[in-house]
């Protein structure tokens, strides 16, 4: 397994633009050569993996995880070890997690804290978004330092979680302005936090204390309204925007319409929203219903997942994450008498690649190239690590999955590699199975057996001003500024104001 030279022979190499049958030669963590029937002079210490009839795809990039996040009195049970171990077992070779400072505390300290948690544990490469949960000159200065020196080119603002993470419109305006100046992409959790707080009180007053109250207090329009507001504010300062976890048809429509109007906005549906729905909140068994609690909630309209998948296939939505933030039943039970106390979060990091293949490709909604686009390439472009990540090409990192599109597996908490005791996709039969996962040039998963090593993954710094996001933005700054109308001065009478 420790061989640093690998030849993947005869597979169909799938990138986001085309597919071809080719061999892929890997050495010291990088792809060194691609081509049909590669002939290598030196065969010593070379591992050959036969991939005929299989697909060879870039390892998945999960744009949205929360490993070991301290939240709602407890912390997410999957840490950076179990979480990334599960990721590679499912064909994901990179995650982007969130460093989240408390209101009033330093962004750089949060970044350092998360690095300290992740670095010794990660089994695959990772990077960090940083959250902006309050505003001051110090926050602004730290955003600049993070972008310039720490490889952070994405900052997330919460429009919900009142009193904990939520910021108001003027703070969004300031944060978006700062993102624009430093070449970062602004991310938002788009829900109206004031309406949620009032809605929650109302549900409790009606005697609704179970998980269904979680959806009822924050219906679709609460998400759609905040999505529209964030787009409006970002557009007013010509800042690119990335809407995390798009959960509803109406929020997705807002994003699709904005893209048609030429706004630079990207939407991220997640595995949960593409693979299951909010009818689970009405499940008779409390623990089942509570296991699905996340914010924004899954939507009870059962046609939502297919709708989101269609938009993803047609580039109205751009990438897939998971918002993986797992709590076991005994943790969820903190809210057994009050849905507002149920820790928010679901699994997904292990199953995203299979769920998107099953619901997207096997169903005929998207092809294998679009699949690669939405599971890795576009994320790599937006967050500025392309083609190091998200592409099988000479010189790219050797993050590769040998994928069997015909094989099936049944998802279950009994067999998954995550620490959490529940799986929201329980019983789902998925076509599309990772046979071998190569992360950083090493085989870390093979035919059901993990060889993942904690600390093997690296932190991936990301430079600001990603071309994919910023070329249009900067050009607009050049040519789209309003200009005053040239006029002769008005010389007539002006009334006197007393
Ligand atoms: Zn999240």
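-> sequence recovered:
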């Amino acid at each position: 397994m420790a061989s640093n030279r690998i030849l993947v022979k005869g597979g169909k190499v799938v990138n986001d633009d085309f597919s071809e049958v080719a061999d892929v030669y890997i050495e010291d963590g990088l792809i060194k050569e691609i081509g049909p029937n590669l002939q290598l002079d030196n065969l010593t210490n070379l591992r050959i993996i036969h991939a005929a009839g299989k697909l060879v795809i870039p390892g998945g990039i999960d744009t949205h995880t929360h490993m070991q996040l301290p939240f709602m009195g407890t912390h997410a049970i999957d840490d950076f070890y179990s979480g990334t171990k599960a990721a590679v077992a499912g064909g994901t070779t990179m995650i982007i997690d969130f460093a989240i400072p408390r209101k009033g505390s330093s962004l750089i300290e949060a970044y350092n804290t998360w690095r300290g948690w992740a670095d010794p544990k990660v089994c695959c490469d990772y990077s960090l978004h940083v959250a902006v949960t309050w505003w001051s000159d110090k926050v602004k200065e730290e955003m600049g330092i993070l972008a310039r020196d720490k490889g952070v080119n994405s900052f997330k603002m919460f429009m919900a979680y009142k009193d904990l993470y939520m910021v108001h419109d003027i703070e969004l305006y300031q944060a978006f302005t700062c993102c624009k100046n430093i070449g970062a992409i602004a991310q938002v959790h788009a829900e109206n936090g004031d309406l949620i707080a009032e809605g929650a009180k109302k549900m409790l007053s009606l005697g609704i204390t179970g998980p269904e109250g979680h959806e009822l207090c924050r219906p679709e329009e609460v998400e759609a309204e905040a999505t529209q507001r964030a787009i409006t504010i970002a557009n007013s300062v010509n800042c690119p925007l990335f809407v995390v976890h798009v959960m509803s048809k109406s929020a997705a429509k807002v994003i699709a319409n904005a893209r048609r109007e030429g706004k630079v906005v990207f939407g991220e549906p997640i595995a949960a929203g593409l693979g299951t729905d909010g009818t689970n909140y009405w499940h008779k068994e409390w623990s089942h219903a509570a296991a699905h609690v996340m914010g924004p909630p899954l939507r009870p309209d059962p046609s939502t997942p297919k709708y989101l998948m269609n938009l993803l296939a047609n580039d109205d939505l751009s990438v897939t994450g998971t918002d993986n933030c797992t709590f076991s039943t005994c943790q969820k039970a903190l809210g057994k008498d009050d849905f507002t106390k149920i820790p928010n979060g679901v699994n997904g990091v292990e199953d995203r690649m299979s769920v998107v293949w099953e619901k997207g490709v096997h169903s005929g909604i998207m092809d294998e190239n679009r699949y690669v686009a939405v599971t890795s390439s576009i994320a790599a472009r937006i967050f500025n690590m392309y083609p190091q990540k998200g592409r099988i090409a000479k010189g790219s990192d050797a993050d590769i999955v040998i994928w069997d599109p015909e094989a099936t597996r049944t998802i279950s908490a009994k067999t998954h590699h995550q620490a959490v005791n529940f799986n929201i996709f329980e019983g789902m039969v998925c076509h599309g199975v990772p046979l071998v996962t190569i992360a950083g040039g090493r085989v870390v998963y093979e035919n059901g057996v993990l060889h993942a090593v904690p600390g093997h993954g690296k932190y991936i710094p990301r430079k600001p001003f990603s071309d994919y996001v910023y070329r249009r933005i900067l050009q607009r700054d050049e040519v789209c500024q309003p200009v005053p109308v040239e006029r002769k001065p008005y010389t007539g009478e002006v009334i006197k104001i007393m």
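The radius of gyration is 23 Å.
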